Amino acid sequence: MRKLAYAAMLLGTAAVAMPAMANDGLQKIIKDPKQWGIQTGDYANTRYSQLNQINAGNVGKMQVAWTFSTGVLRGHEGGPLIIGDVMYVHTPFPNIVYALDLNNDGKIIWKYEPKQDPNVIPVMCCDTVNRGLAYSNGLIYLHQADTTLVALDAKTGEKKWSVVNGDPKKGETNTATVLPVKDKVIVGISGGEFGVRCHVTAYDSATGKQVWRGYSMGPDSDLLVDPAKTTALGKPIGADSSLKTWEGDQWKIGGGCTWGWYSYDPETNLVYYGSGNPSTWNPKQRPGDNKWSMTIWARDADTGMAKWVYQMTPHDEWDYDGINEMILTDQEMNGQQRKLLTHFDRNGFGYTLDRVSGDLLVAEKFDPAVNWATKVDMDRNSPTFGRPQVVSQFSTEQQGEDVNTKGICPAALGTKDQQPAAYSPKTKLFYVPTNHVCMDYEPFRVSYTAGQPYVGATLSMFPAPNSHGGMGNFIAWDNTKGKIVWSLKEPFSVWSGALATAGDVVFYGTLEGYLKAVDSKTGKELYKFKTPSGIIGNVTTYEHKGKQYIAILSGVGGWAGIGLAAGLTDPQAGLGAVGGYAALSSYTNLGGQLTVFALPN
Looking at the DSSP assignment, which residues form a beta bridge with residue 540? Predict the structure, then answer.
């Protein structure tokens, strides 16, 4: 009962080959459009497929080919992997893994069900989701909710090794996938709402031995930064860049968690990811910029050493986690070819940077409702270059403790949360699932106790006012200009990851449970089908025996669907989400199903 009380408190405040050094096997699979070897589609996180058998001209004829029940309720994020003739499917807690035979109507080849302490559930923020499996050199990698990283034989399901990445008793948990790079597996951690000091860790992919670990805040040696060579907006960060922005030892419970997506550029050998909100949510209790929370990181894959950083939301006052995916593209900009990184942040700004140097090129709002800042200062000669210009009316710091700051847009779950965008090299557009949601936010003083919620704010969420009345949009975005090209209105937040294809189709799912297909150039709806439960999973495609398939996990949940997933009714529960999404229960219910689509024979 005590554990349940803690959960209520949190929610109420709302035979395997040795790995090749270059991981050539995974690179080959990623380049084969018939397979889907990594959660993000490729190392660049584009979620783009070259398959075009299903296209804008015939997608309207698509039908359900087969289905599979996962046997688990709660939110189903991420998607399946397809390696050869086998599909690998995961579930939320207890994080079951299924290997399904595509040659035999999805027959179960093996099933792995870890035995985890259920006490991990109350310390998982915002549902018991998991964003999927990873594969490399004959091994399937599962990062469990309890932070155990497991390597399974892809053919048999036999556990080859496991290592513990954190301690749930301190509030450390996991909801993310991992990134196999070369002979390593890159792993993050959750727990910002419990005052965890977060990090990224590289483990040897063959043995599980820790190779390096870089923290989000603290001494330079813990951060894995070189004060003279690691840069921010082109300038060296200098000694003790993080420590100088925290009061006393607050950095030790500073948050900055790393539960999002990771990308990798083989040419630069850099891994890119974002760090999350600082702890606590009450900004008055942690003066300073709180570096390096809310930051885009570029780290050397071999050593972990940071080449550059960029803090998007210094001294975060709204819980605008910076963990969303970094999408890597090579595009022409201002008449020259650039190696770009595009990031759609929770704070409502779409950023375009040079991924080699960290140079900030574009920072524009990707939802017109965003009001907490007027703009990001893009004057390179300004002392505030790269910083958001905060509006006093919506500053929870300036309004003060125990004051309910009203009408902040976006809400804490952001203009976009973890649901990944897609990029099409054919249109040069990004396809972005968004939340059109605002909030009231009241910070209050909170004390830290290890393993107990360390939130310090009460929230309520609602649709952006004076708008279309809904809580979501699906948009096409030009990252070189920072402009919305087209936008589709949705009644609820679009919490599903997008997929773009060479067939000029973009797919996404809705919280009511629809899989939708739209024209990549115009956004015209071409197809929709309602699956048994709300979709917060990511759309996947593959080819088997000459036929293209589209696959999606249904299973409502996540932060937006936490009311349904956890049976909560208090409007302020789920860190404010329950009241905002109360109407969702009229459109869908709990479920856990994989639905696979194809064109008729």
Answer: 551
